[in-house]
TrEMBL record, chain A:
It comes from Mesorhizobium tamadayense. This is ABC transporter permease. PANTHER family: GLYCINE BETAINE UPTAKE SYSTEM PERMEASE PROTEIN YEHW, GLYCINE BETAINE/L-PROLINE TRANSPORT SYSTEM PERMEASE PROTEIN PROW. The chain crosses the membrane at residues 51-77, 98-115, 121-147, 168-192, 212-236. One of its GO terms (cellular component) is plasma membrane.
TrEMBL record, chain B:
GO terms for biological process: quaternary ammonium group transport. The keyword Transport applies. Belongs to the ABC transporter superfamily. Keywords: ATP-binding, Nucleotide-binding, Transport. It comes from Mesorhizobium tamadayense. GO terms for molecular function: ATP binding; ATP hydrolysis activity. This is ABC transporter ATP-binding protein. The lineage of its organism: Bacteria, Pseudomonadati, Pseudomonadota, Alphaproteobacteria, Hyphomicrobiales. Residues 2-236 form the ABC transporter domain.
From TrEMBL, chain C:
The keyword Transmembrane applies. Belongs to the binding-protein-dependent transport system permease family. Pfam families: BPD_transp_1 (PF00528). GO terms for cellular component: plasma membrane. It is found in: Cell membrane. It is a multi-pass membrane protein. Keywords: Membrane, Transmembrane, Transmembrane helix, Transport. This is ABC transporter permease. Residues 176-371 form the ABC transmembrane type-1 domain. The chain crosses the membrane at residues 46-66, 78-98, 110-127, 139-162, 182-202, 214-237, 257-278, 299-319, 325-345, 352-375. InterPro entries: ABC_transp_perm/SBD, MetI-like, MetI-like_sf.
Length: 249, 311, 387
C-alpha cells in the first residue's frame, strides 16, 4: 500500500464526517431507502451537530478527569511511600476491568439520578482502568540503568519524576488514554438510555421507531469519530515512541 | 582525596561490604576488581550515596559525604555506568548537559562545555548534538555516557563497569580515551570492573575484593608480583601473570645499549607488545626508536624474559 | 508491644467509621418507587444485633488500622462480610411492617461502603497471601456457595432486590440462560472462526494488516448501533433464505445480538492468536524446522502450545467483554439480564436495575477469576519445564 493512501482515506473520512454533521440534508437521498412509510431519513428531534459536540464533551471531561486521577494514583503507588498499595492496586485494576460498562452506568443511576451525571461517572470510572494500568506498567518497567543514571546525576525525586519518568512513560500512558477514549465514545452512546444527551439518542430513537436510517447515522458518526480519534492518538503515540528509539509494532 | 573508613553495608543478615578502608590519592585511578557479588559495586555506590552504609565514614577532601543532601553530593561527583543509561528522550547535547542544568549554569557556559566534551570525544557537536541516543553506535553511546559524567567538571568520577557492554576493539579505544582525559583534567577516578586485564591496564592502584572484604590494595606490579593470597593469585591468573607484568612496563625502560636488525619499536610501546613483536619476527633483538624516530638502543628477548619475573 | 498503623488500614478505617456512624445502613420505602427514608445500623436491627454488628465492624476496622498478622486480617474481613451479609437480611425483616407487601427495604450507602471497605481488606489479604490459581478458584467457589446458601435459606427474601426477583423468578432464569448462551455461544463461534483466521493471518503476511484493521473498525462501532444495524440484513435473510427462519434467525431478537457479539469477539481472538504465534521464539521454530518437522507438525507441536497462554488471554478478554455487552441485547429484544436493567431504568425502579446488573457483574467477575487462574496454570506449567 502506498504511504499516502491511509492518510488520504482518513482525510476523506474527516471531510465526510464534518459534512454530514454540518449539513445532514445533503445525504438524505442516500439514507431514504432505509426508511419505511415515509419516516424521516435524517434525525429530526435535535441537531446532529449539537449532539456530536455534547457527545465529545462528555467523553473529553470524563477522560481528562480519569487521566489526572489515574496518573496521580499510579505515581503515588510507585513512590516508596505508596509502595504498600502497589500489589493491591494491581488486583483492583484486574477486578475493576471485569465490570461491564453498562453495569457501571446502571449502578451509577441509583446514586446520582438520570442525565449526564451517571454517564460521566461510568465513563470516568471505566476510563480510569486502562490509563492506570498503562501508567503503572510504564512507571514500573522503566529501564534500570537510565533510572540509576538519573539518581547518580543528582536529580531529586521530583526532578526524576518530571524530567525522566513521566516523559519516558508518556507513550505507554497515551496508549491507555487512547483505549479509554475509544471505550468512552462507545459507552457514551449507552448513556442515552439514562437520558444523557449523546449520539446514542439518535440510535435509540431509531431502534424505538424501527427507523434504520437513524440507527445507521448515529452509529456511523460515533464509529467515524472513534476511528479518527484512535488514529490521531496512535500517531502522537508513535511520534513520542520514535523519539525515544522505542519502535512500536 | 577520598578516604573510606571502616565502611560496612548489611542487608538484613547478609554483609555485602565488610569493614572496608581505602585511601584514594587525588588525580589517580583506583580500580576495584572482584567477581560478581564481591560487593565492589555496592562500595562504589556508597561513595555518592546511592547506597547508604550501615556503618563507617566516607570523606571527600576531608569532608564527610553526608554533610550535604545526597542529590547535591551526586551533582558534584561524576557517575558512569555499564550500558551508559542515557536518557532516551533527550538529545545527545541535552544528555551531556544534565548535571550543569541541574546546577543552574547559564546557557552559554553549558553550550561551551558540551561542545568541548563532544569535540574531545571526537563527536562533531553540530552533527551529533541534536541526535537521540538510539541513533548512535554502541561505542558512541558509551562516550556520551562518560562525557555526561564529566560535564560538570567533577573532581571525582565513579565508573561501574563502564566498558562492560563494548566489543574488544572499541573497548581498548575507550580505555585509551579515558586515560588521556584523566591526564588532561586530573580527575580522580574510581573504576569497578571484573576484568583483571582492565584493572592492570587502567589502575594506579588496584583493590581486590571478595565476599565484601578488600583482600589487597596495592600498585598493579605489587599485586602481580606478590598476590596477598590464593584468591588474588587465581584472579590474576597464573598463566597470564608474566605478560601482565610486562604490559605494565614501557620499552624505553628496558632498552639495552647496542644495535639490532629489523624494524624499530617505539619506546613508549609496552614491553608485552615488544615481546610479541620479537617472537613474531623470530629475532633475539630489535632496535628501539624514540618519539622523533631516533634510534636509542635495542631490546632483547633475554632482557624481557628477566623482566617477566618479579624481582 | 508497639502499635504501628497500616497505610491501607487508615483508608479502610476512615471508610468504616464514616459508613458505620454517618451513613444510612438501610433504606425504607413505602412502595417500590417512592423516595426512601434512611435508617442507621441501630435503627435497622433489633438492639442486641445492631450493637453486635457495630462491635464487629469497629473491631474489624481497628484490626485493619493496625499492623496485624495476615490471618487475623483475613478472619476480620471474612467475619465482617458474613455478618453484614446475614444481618442486612435481618434488617429487611425487622424494618418491614408485618403483612405489608408494598414496603421495600434495600441496603443503603453505609452498607455498601462497609462491604467495599472489608472487601478491600480481603482483597489486600488475598493479594499478600499470593494464592495459587487453584486456591483462588477455591475461594471463589466458597464465596459463591455462601451467597447461594444465603439465597436458598431465604434470609434475604425481605430485601427489595429479592422481592423484584420473587415477582419474576421464571423470567429471571430464562433471561439468565439467554444471557449466558449469548455470551458463551458467540465466544465459541468466535474461537472456531478466529483461531484459523489468526493462523492464516500469521502465515500470510499481506492479509494481516487488512484483517486486523477491519476488525479494529468493527470494534469502534458502538454496540447499540451494531446491534441495530444487523436487524436489516438478518431480517432479509429470514425472509429470503429458506429454512433460515426455522433456525431462529430473525431481524430482531437473539440473532442480531449473537452476530454482533460474535463480530466484537473476533478481534481479540484473531489479534491474540497472531501476537501469540509471532511471539514463539525464533530458535524454537528453527530447531523444529531443522529436525524436519512439517509446517503442520510445527503448528500443532511447537507454535500452538507456545502461543496458547496468549490466545487464552484473548479468550478471557472476549468472555468478560461479552458478558457485559450481552446486556445491550435487551434493547433489540435479544433478552438477557439487560432486560431488567433497561426495564428498571425505564420505570425508575432501581431494585430492578440491580436485579439485572448484580448477576451480570458477578458472572463477569467469576469468569475473570476462573480464566485468570487457567491462564496462570497453563503458563506456569510451561515455565516449569526446561526451555
Amino acid at each position: 500500500m502506498k504511504a499516502w493512501l491511509p492518510a488520504l482515506l482518513r482525510l476523506a473520512l474527516l471531510v465526510l464526517l464534518v459534512a454530514f454533521i454540518a449539513s445532514p440534508g445533503w445525504f438524505e437521498p442516500l439514507l431514504r431507502p432505509l426508511t419505511e412509510n415515509g419516516a424521516p431519513a435524517i434525525y429530526n428531534q435535535g441537531s446532529l451537530l449539537t449532539l456530536t459536540l455534547l457527545h465529545l464533551r462528555t467523553v473529553l471531561v470524563a477522560t481528562v478527569a480519569a487521566t489526572i486521577v489515574a496518573v496521580a494514583l499510579a505515581i503515588l503507588v510507585t513512590r516508596p511511600a505508596g509502595a504498600e498499595f502497589l500489589p493491591l492496586s494491581r488486583s483492583l485494576v484486574n477486578i475493576g476491568q471485569s465490570f461491564p460498562p453498562v453495569a457501571v452506568l446502571a449502578l451509577a443511576v441509583p446514586a446520582v439520578g438520570f442525565g449526564e451525571k451517571p454517564t460521566l461517572i461510568a465513563l470516568f470510572l471505566y476510563g480510569l482502568l486502562p490509563i492506570f494500568e498503562n501508567a503503572l506498567t510504564a512507571l514500573t518497567t522503566l529501564p534500570g540503568n537510565v533510572m540509576e543514571a538519573a539518581r547518580g546525576a543528582g536529580m531529586t525525586g521530583w526532578q526524576r519524576l518530571v524530567k525522566v519518568e513521566l516523559p519516558l512513560s508518556a507513550p505507554v500512558i497515551l496508549g491507555g488514554i487512547r483505549l479509554s477514549v475509544v471505550i468512552g465514545l462507545a459507552t457514551a452512546t449507552i448513556g442515552s438510555t439514562v437520558a444523557a444527551k449523546t449520539l446514542g439518542e439518535v440510535i435509540i430513537a431509531g431502534l424505538i421507531s424501527n427507523n434504520l436510517a437513524f440507527v445507521l447515522q448515529g452509529g456511523l458518526i460515533v464509529a467515524a469519530l472513534a476511528v479518527l480519534i484512535y488514529d490521531g492518538l496512535s500517531a502522537i503515540e508513535r511520534y513520542a515512541a520514535r523519539r525515544m528509539g522505542r519502535e512500536t509494532a | 582525596m577520598i578516604e573510606i573508613e571502616g565502611i560496612t553495608k548489611r542487608y538484613d543478615e547478609t554483609t555485602v561490604v565488610d569493614n572496608v578502608s581505602l585511601v584514594i590519592e587525588p588525580r589517580t585511578i583506583a580500580v576495584i576488581v572482584g567477581t560478581s557479588g564481591s560487593g565492589k559495586t555496592t562500595l562504589l555506590r556508597m561513595i555518592n550515596r546511592l547506597v547508604e552504609p550501615t556503618s563507617g565514614v566516607i570523606k571527600l577532601d576531608g569532608a564527610d559525604n553526608r554533610s550535604v543532601p545526597d542529590y547535591q553530593l551526586r551533582r558534584s561527583i561524576g557517575y558512569a555506568i555499564q550500558g551508559h543509561g542515557l536518557f532516551p528522550h533527550r538529545t545527545v547535547a541535552q544528555n551531556i548537559a544534565t548535571v550543569p542544568l541541574l546546577l543552574g549554569w547559564d546557557k552559554d557556559r553549558i553550550k561551551a562545555r558540551v561542545d568541548e566534551l563532544m569535540t574531545l570525544y571526537q563527536l562533531d557537536p553540530q552533527a551529533y548534538g541534536p541526535r537521540y541516543p538510539h541513533e548512535l553506535s554502541g561505542g558512541q553511546q558509551q562516550r556520551v555516557g562518560v562525557a555526561r559524567a564529566l560535564a560538570a567538571e567533577p573532581n571525582v568520577l565513579l565508573m561501574d563497569e563502564p566498558f562492560g557492554a563494548l566489543d574488544p576493539i572499541i573497548r581498548t579505544k575507550a580505555q585509551e580515551d579515558l586515560l588521556a582525559i584523566q591526564k588532561r583534567f586530573g580527575t580522580t577516578i574510581i573504576l569497578v570492573t571484573h576484568d583483571m586485564e582492565e584493572a592492570v591496564h587502567m589502575g594506579d592502584k588496584i583493590a581486590v575484593m571478595d565476599a565484601g572484604k578488600v583482600l589487597q590494595y596495592a600498585k598493579p606490579a605489587e599485586i602481580l608480583a606478590r598476590p596477598a593470597n590464593g584468591f588474588v593469585e587465581t584472579l590474576v591468573g597464573s598463566s597470564e601473570r608474566p605478560f601482565r607484568l610486562l604490559s605494565l612496563g614501557r620499552v624505553r625502560d628496558a632498552v639495552e645499549p647496542g644495535g639490532a636488525e629489523g624494524e624499530a619499536i617505539p619506546g613508549d610501546a609496552s614491553q608485552r607488545d615488544a615481546l610479541a613483536e620479537l617472537l613474531w619476527a623470530g629475532r633475539p633483538a630489535l632496535p628501539v626508536k624514540d618519539g622523533d624516530g631516533k634510534l636509542i638502543g635495542r631490546i632483547t628477548v633475554e632482557g624481557l624474559v628477566k623482566r617477566a619475573r618479579p624481582a | 508491644m508497639t502499635f504501628r498503623f497500616d497505610k491501607l488500614g487508615i483508608v479502610i478505617a476512615v471508610v468504616v467509621a464514616y459508613a458505620a456512624f454517618a451513613a444510612p445502613f438501610a433504606t425504607f420505602r413505602a412502595n417500590r418507587i417512592v423516595p426512601g427514608q434512611a435508617r442507621s445500623i441501630l435503627e435497622s436491627l433489633p438492639s442486641a444485633l445492631g450493637a453486635l454488628l457495630l462491635a464487629i465492624v469497629i473491631v474489624g476496622g481497628i484490626i485493619a488500622l493496625l499492623k496485624t498478622p495476615l490471618v487475623l486480617r483475613l478472619a476480620a474481613s471474612v467475619i465482617a462480610l458474613a455478618a453484614l451479609a446475614i444481618l442486612i437480611g435481618t434488617a429487611g425483616g425487622f424494618l418491614t411492617p408485618a403483612g405489608n407487601t408494598f414496603a421495600r427495604v434495600s441496603p443503603a450507602s453505609g452498607f455498601w461502603l462497609l462491604i467495599f471497605a472489608f472487601t478491600l481488606l480481603l482483597a489486600d489479604v488475598l493479594t499478600r497471601l499470593n494464592l495459587s490459581p487453584s486456591a483462588r478458584v477455591g475461594a471463589l467457589v466458597v464465596a459463591a456457595l455462601a451467597v447461594g446458601a444465603l439465597l436458598v435459606s431465604g434470609s434475604w427474601d425481605s430485601l427489595s432486590i429479592l422481592k423484584e426477583y420473587a415477582s419474576r423468578a421464571d423470567s429471571f432464569w430464562a433471561e439468565g440462560s439467554k444471557h449466558v448462551t449469548l455470551a458463551l455461544g458467540s465466544l465459541a463461534a468466535a474461537v472456531v472462526v478466529g483461531l484459523p483466521l489468526g493462523i492464516l493471518c500469521h502465515r500470510v503476511e499481506p492479509l494481516r494488516a487488512g484483517v486486523l484493521n477491519v476488525l479494529n473498525i468493527i470494534q469502534t462501532i458502538p454496540s447499540i448501533a451494531l446491534f441495530g444495524l444487523l436487524i436489516a440484513p438478518l431480517g432479509w435473510v429470514a425472509a429470503h433464505v429458506p429454512g433460515a427462519a426455522g433456525f431462529g434467525i430473525r431481524g430482531i431478537g437473539t440473532a442480531p445480538a449473537f452476530v454482533a457479539l460474535f463480530l466484537y469477539s473476533l478481534l481479540p481472538v484473531v489479534a491474540n492468536t497472531v501476537v501469540g504465534l509471532a511471539g514463539v521464539p525464533r530458535a524454537a521454530n528453527d530447531a523444529a524446522r531443522g529436525m524436519g518437522m512439517t509446517d503442520r507438525q510445527r503448528l500443532f507441536d511447537v507454535e500452538f502450545p507456545l502461543a496458547f497462554p496468549v490466545i487464552l488471554t484473548g479468550i478471557r478478554i472476549v468472555l468478560v467483554q461479552n458478558i457485559g455487552l450481552a446486556t445491550i441485547a435487551a434493547l433489540i429484544g435479544g433478552g438477557g439480564f439487560g432486560v431488567f436493567v433497561f426495564q428498571g431504568v425505564g420505570q425508575t425502579a432501581m431494585d430492578l436495575v440491580l436485579l439485572g446488573a448484580v448477576p451480570t457483574v458477578a458472572l463477569a467477575f467469576a469468569a475473570a477469576i476462573i480464566l485468570d487462574a487457567v491462564i496462570e496454570m497453563t503458563s506456569t506449567k510451561r515455565r516449569a519445564q526446561p526451555a
